[in-house]
Amino acid sequence: MSDLFRLSATKAARAIARGELTSEALVTSCLERIEAREGTVRAWAYVAAEQALAEARERDRSAASGPLHGVPVGIKDVIDTADMPTDYGSDAFDGFQPREDAECVRLLKEAGAIILGKTVTAEFATYRPGPTRNPHNPDHTPGGSSSGSAAAVADFHVPLTLGTQTAGSVIRPASFCGVIGFKPTRKRYDTGGMVDTAHHLDTLGGFGRAVEDLELLDSVLGSETKDIEPTSEPPRIGLYRSGAWNQASPETQKLFFETADVLRDAGAELMGVEGSELFDRLGEAQRLIHMREAWICLGPVVEKHADRISDVLKQFIAAGRDLPAEKYLEALDIQKVCVNEQDSLFGECDFLLTPSAPGIAPYGIDSTGDPVFNRMWTALGTPCLGFPVKEGEKGLPIGLQIIGRQGQDREILGFGHWMVNVAGRWQSKL
User: What pLDDT digit, counting tens, does each position of 221-263 carry?
Assistant: First the structure.
């Protein structure tokens, strides 16, 4: 087996464009890696091996068609694909074939990408996990609901994948699996053709092994892709300990302060950030919005296919149905006020630094872990870049995330290069 599967998306795209690498060779290497490791990791709901190879050969015969020409990409299985099944992680939709590609899939194909297959998701991107395991320790969860997308990138099956986040489904699995996860400003990426679970929260994002890969993805999917203006000023980073701080493990809390020391030594200006009571309520507001809108979006599906829906999802939908309307409306009001007042949270800071998850990936695969450090940012709609920092217990990665204001997507990606280079000590042993 060649080791081409270890190439980042950006390096692979450049090598293909220069004629130093064929798409067929890269796709073949990725498929061989999947064959060798999928029995352990179980990251894929569907692999379009022959189709991907045929498309790779076609790319090699044609001129470069876009920034991802010839690069294989994995698609979370809650995103529609017209030429392969979309099961939504549900027995009720086993083998379902959408008529059209989701808009993000169309844009990827237009950019020259090859869709390698569909990655495992929790049922309807909610709480019943799929079979995927953490590549670094298969006894532990990879996180979710974008479990297969994070694990496939971490285990070198594919350089780039799409995921979605309604609570913590991009940033948390990125932390657990030791990859870079990017949740952009809400609505920056078109969500047409993606399963609806919560209209005020659902966000399309991605996973890669390098920040530049997420920049590349953003250049394809972003609603605008302005250049990043270089600056000689040291970044002003706010150290944010939210109301959830006490739920972080001692290892995570220690890492947070160790990283702050590293950043200060590298020239960053650090500022303490105090969240107000209002912002501390945002995580609970997200939970209530998610609950109510999941009932609105998925309730009819659950009712129609009750015999093929998990008890976990049924209970979640029932809780959303029974939630008093005034509590839902109050949660929406909290979200709206916080979005309008986000500058008061950031103050003079360029970005905020905070944990990605309470700690390492929990033991077992019956749960995807707690999104307590992600909920408020999803509700706030801000761009988040999660990255692994170092190896924690049991050989599992442990990570942090940086947060920008709404619309600072290109800025946070540009800053992410510096942050990961300075603070990232994680080295995969896979």
Answer: 997 766 666 555 778 999 999 899 999 999 999 999 999 999 9
Q: Any catalytic annotation for residue 249?
A: no
Assigned token pair, 281: 């309520």
Cα dist from 368 to 126, 165, 383, 425, whole Å = 10, 13, 22, 24
Tell me the three-class secondary structure of 261-320, residue by residue.
Answer: HHHHHCCCEEEEECCCHHHHCHHHHHHHHHHHHHHHHHHHHHHHCHHHCCHHHHHHHHHH
Tens digit of each residue's pLDDT (9 = 90 or more) over 38-63: 999 999 999 999 999 999 999 999 98
Question: Which entry of 76, 109, 118, 183 is annotated as an active-site residue?
Answer: 76
CB burial of 106-119 (b: ≥16 within 10 Å; e: otherwise) equals bbbbebbbbbbbbb
Task: Kindly list the domain boundaries of the chain, sorted by start residue.
Answer: 1-228+235-430
Average pLDDT, the chain: 96
Enumerate the β-bridge partners of residue 206: 162, 182
Confidence at residue 234, expressed as pLDDT on a 0 to 100 scale = 75
What does the pLDDT read at residue 231? 58
Instruction: Tell me the C-alpha distance between 213 and 150, whole Å.
Output: 14
CATH number of 1-228+235-430: 3.90.1300.10
Is the distance from CB of 422 to CB of 263 less than 8 angstroms?
Answer: yes
| Sheet architecture: strand order including 180-183 | 44-47, 114-119, 72-76, 160-165, 203-208, 180-183, 384-391, 397-403, 351-355, 236-240, 269-273
76 is catalytic: yes
Answer yes or no: are the C-beta atoms of 237 and 350 closer than 8 Å.
yes
Check 29, 147, 169, 310 and give the catalytic one: 169
Active site residue 149: no
Catalytic residue (choose from 8, 23, 145, 147): 145
Say whether pTM exceeds 0.85. yes
